[in-house]
Amino acid sequence: MKHLGRTKFAVSSMALLSLTLTGCIGGGSSSTPVNPSQNADAKDVTLSISANAILGGKSDAEAVWITKSVIPKFEAEQKAKGVNVKVSFNPSGVEDEAFKSKMSLALKAHTAADLVELDGIWTGEFADAGYIKPLNDVVGKEKVTAWDGWKQIQPGIQQFTSYNGQAYGIPEGTDGRVIYFNKKLFQKAGLPADWQPKSWADILSAAEKLKSLSGVTPLQINAGTPMGEATTMQGFLPLLQGTGQPVYKDGKWQGASQGVKDVLDFYGKIYGSAKLGDPLLQQETDGRSKSFQLFADGKLGIIIEGDYLWRSVINPKGGIAPMADRDTVVGWAKIPAQAPGKGVNGTDFVSMSGGGGVFLNPDSKYPQQAWELLTFMNSAKILEDKFIPTPQLSARDDVNAAVLGKDPLLTYIAKEVLPVSGFRPGVAVDPQVSLAIEDATGKAASGTSGEAAAQDYEKALEQLVDKSNVFK
Amino acid sequence: MSEIDADAAASQKLRKSERVKRKGNRTSEDGDSAGLGKGRAAAFVAPAMLLIAIFLVFPALWTLYLGLTNYRLTGFAATHPRFVGIDNYVNALTDSRFLNSLGLTLLFVLGSAVIGQSVLGFAIAWMMTRVRKGVKSVVEFFVLLAWIVPSSVSTFLWLALLDRNNGTLNTLFGTGTTAWLLQFPMQSIIVFNTWVGTAFSMLLFSSALGAVPPTQLESSKIAGAGAWAQLRDVIFPHIRSHVLTNTILITLWTFNTFTPYLLTAGGPDHRSEILPVYIYRLALSEGSLGQGSAVSLIMILINLVIALVYLRILREKKS
Amino acid sequence: MNSMQATADSSARPALMRHFLGLMGKTLFIALVLAFFVIPVLWLVFAPFDAHPSLTIKAPQFTFHNFEVLFQTPGAIASLGNSIILALGTMILVLVLGALASYALSRVKIPGRDILLYTLLLLSSIITGTAAMVPTFLLMVKLGLIDSQLGVILILGSGIMPTVIFILKDFMDSIPKSYEESARIYGAKPLRILWDVGVPLARPGLATIAVWAVVQVWGNFLVPYILLQTPSRTPAAVVIYTFYTEGGQPNLALISAFSLLFSIPVIAMYFFVNTRYGFRFYGGIKS
């Protein structure tokens, strides 16, 4: 009978435990009121930074910069002011979705680092959950507006870390998409080395010519779920920008409009009827890596990609698919609208840009010092430590002016592409819409008609947002 | 000749242990051979159960509770989850994607666990009773290797094997640029999971076969029974309980394995989206933890039904 | 041995023929089984030593460079030590508690025992899934077990405990009870009987379960990734996922080399356990 008593005890204590704990599912971050002046005069301060970067692994340069430049320099600067600051770095370096989950959990449970580096497209959902709060609330409006860095960051880029008109963090860097091509293959196919397509038709006709070369895939525009965000940012969205309307406008999402159908038909033509791309590549789990490898090996004629391809993939120094003759063989051009003047706001050319930023944890015990660290990280001098060794588009104009000079592609993107670039809406449901987009393009690339894929997409959209928030 | 002697000695030993076992079974009818008593028995069980209660039952029940809400990892519903009753269950059961996933899972379990792992595992175990010790150790090592290599490693092995362009399989068979994972996604993950899990069935069956009295095998052979009849009439009755344990465990494990995600990501076009992959997509990619929890419960209920069916089939035959 | 046996059994030709065919069949079967299990593993033998590994098995441009880079990567080698801590910790936890519980469950009939066990088995499959992430994390925060290796051990150990008990109970069932009865006559206490009689008899089973437990922990990514923060506590299963670029492309040079290092400890443990204790299951639900 003893064991029965024990079981009863176990069951009842568990019931009690579950009562106390189910309370924590909701509630979330509201339990600790934000107090900007908390510990403002502390002399011994500990701070921490979380980022999806790790020494020797993913985003190594970022991790090197944080541990070798940001932290020691900030500690030294504070020491000079008589404040004893100890900053620690929590590296991660895994798949974005896993990192996002970990950060969500940590922020929810109030165990996160003081500064958290996140992708800009997550801003809305993190803000809606109360995991992050406006800088004005966490730090104090005066302090925030007084920062001299804001004027160096263009409004579109400031949107990466903003939500409903409030800044939640400071954007760090950005990027842009162009249409790359292989000049050697172009020469063989009788195409010019200074190619600049003016319409989708120009892309198709160039790809048609490349088709005559044996062993060459003419064109790669990312489609389907396995490519993930790369499908959304390098495929569907820049194409959609070229049909006149952005994916999200005035609080409404674009449904099965003519533009969406045209984009999906374009996919259908490339991977189906015209056979200009490799449909299987869009379905393989490592399809994107393979597309890079093909391009590096000179077996792919045209590809729409971000500056990431140039910097980290085919870079002869340290790229994962290095191309020794990158600088002479690889050409690039702006992505054309469907037809001249058809881009959003009547532009001839289009692109998409995104980027991440550093957010301030509203639970920080030292909000003022955390803010100091945040602005220190985003000061021109410190950012140059990161971007001079590995040039990349910074969020700041002054830094770009100082570091991009030597890199022709990055300079081109900063000057020619960013002005026509579109940005992600950054609302909470955006990453889920992105999944629906990936699904629709995947269908279109594997034989579903543009019309049917567009209808499916609209249906998926209506499950995410109210029907009244869908426009055509 | 000495090997024959050894064989004879071994079978004698087995017969002896069989006798001991039977005797043991007889005493176990009156239970408690070690004189534990219920109180002490409870004390022995308590630490494990306490641990399970806190770190397993509690979060599992909590997860099931989440299945009744619209809880999400991020966004407004993360901090303000709403109780939605059985909505998630209704959504799942009326969603063609879920039903597709369920069908694929049943196919996957049947193909890779019930047929693949069990049959191959049994065949190897059976064959290993009739080969030299050296051959046996080598075969067993490689079968076990597939089982103990971490899944993050084994998926790379299989990506290299099945790769479309220069994969080992295409090179060996001259199958050109067959994209195995795309053209045959289910077949690929079924074969992969058979490769991973056969070791367990092999181990279990090889000890089970060791317990079949050689005398009975001999006499059935003399009576002229074919291999199949021997298997059915002599061997199976002895290993029935092992078959049950094995099938229940590998079914459950196969139902839960997430590793195929690393090979096909559920694709192409959801064609290999088995339930654990579907749940992963719901819970992690889409952040719909409420919906994911609901599907988890449906999944274990299906497991329960399957286990009951196994129990029925394998028990009935005995009587 | 077989040919000798055959000649001894019968000298008739058809029998000899049948035997020959049988031998052929047997050899073919073993060759196929070996091919099936060995061919995929070849990548792990070649790629780590290739200067430019790809998803192809080819004669490598031989180099140790990949390992050199790995040894310089902070935390990479140390992560194997962390994996060992987690794996051994979990193994000891489930073996000790699992053996005690399964022994008692085997020897004393508790009503509803089998149903209870199977229910726990089912619940364990929820907890190992992604859907249970939030409850698990929040529970560990409440208990102050975040960023603690003990916390990971407790979660992983509880997750596999039902299976351990389920299998071990079968083992215990198959141990002849007469030994315990004699031990009892000499006045041994139950714990002593378990230790002196049960454990030695169940040793191959315990060894098998130990290996199984280690393998479960060794490859687990999500639990340690989410529960641990300090880099110096990260296990290898998490580290292997960091050898990707910012765009998600795998760095095969590092991944293949690390895969080899990551697999060696479990293989070594297999050999150790196999030579020392044998690798055997008993078991089966008594029906």
Residues in β-strands, percent of chain B: under 5%
Mean pLDDT of chain B comes to 84
Total of helices of chain C: 13
User: Which of globular, elongated, flat, extended, rod-shaped describes the shape of chain B?
Assistant: globular
Name of the CATH architecture of chain B: Orthogonal Bundle
Give the low-confidence spans of chain B.
1-30
Instruction: Indicate the CATH topology of the largest domain in chain C.
Output: MetI-like fold
Number of domain modules of chain B: 1
Determine the fraction of residues in helical runs of chain B and give it as a percent range. over 70%
Quaternary structure type:
heterotrimer
> How many strands, which pairing sense, and closed or not: the largest β-sheet of chain C?
none
Largest interface: B-C, 119 and 107 residues
Span of the ends, CA to CA of chain B: 42 Å
**Which structural class is indicated by helix and strand composition of chain B?**
mainly alpha
- CATH class descriptor of the largest domain in chain C: Mainly Alpha
Tell me the total number of β-strands of chain C: 0
Tell me what you see in this structure:
The complex is a heterotrimer of chains A (472), B (319) and C (287). Chain A folds into 2 domains: 10-175 and 355-421, D-Maltodextrin-Binding Protein, domain 2, CATH 3.40.190.10; 177-352 and 428-471, Periplasmic binding protein-like II (D-Maltodextrin-Binding Protein, domain 2). In chain A, 44% of the residues lie in helices and 15% in strands. Chain A contains 20 helices and 17 strands. A 5-stranded mixed sheet of chain A has the order 2-1-3-15-6, with helices on one face. A 4-stranded mixed sheet of chain A has the order 8-11-7-12. In chain A, α16 crosses α17 (397-403) and α19 packs antiparallel against α20 (450-464). The longest helix of chain A is centred in the N-terminal third of the chain and has 21 residues, at 2-22. With 319 residues, chain B is mainly α. The longest helix of chain B is centred in the middle third of the chain and has 33 residues, at 96-128. Chain B is globular, with a radius of gyration of 24 Å. Mean pLDDT of chain B is 84; it is low at 1-30. Chain C folds into 2 domains: 2-63, no CATH class; 75-284, MetI-like fold, CATH 1.10.3720. Helices cover 71% and strands 0% of the residues of chain C. Chain C has helices at residues 2-9, 13-38, 42-46, 65-72, 76-107, 113-127, 133-142, 149-173, 177-185, 190-218, 222-227, 236-239, 252-277. Chains in contact: A-B, A-C, B-C. The interface between B and C is large, with 119 and 107 residues.
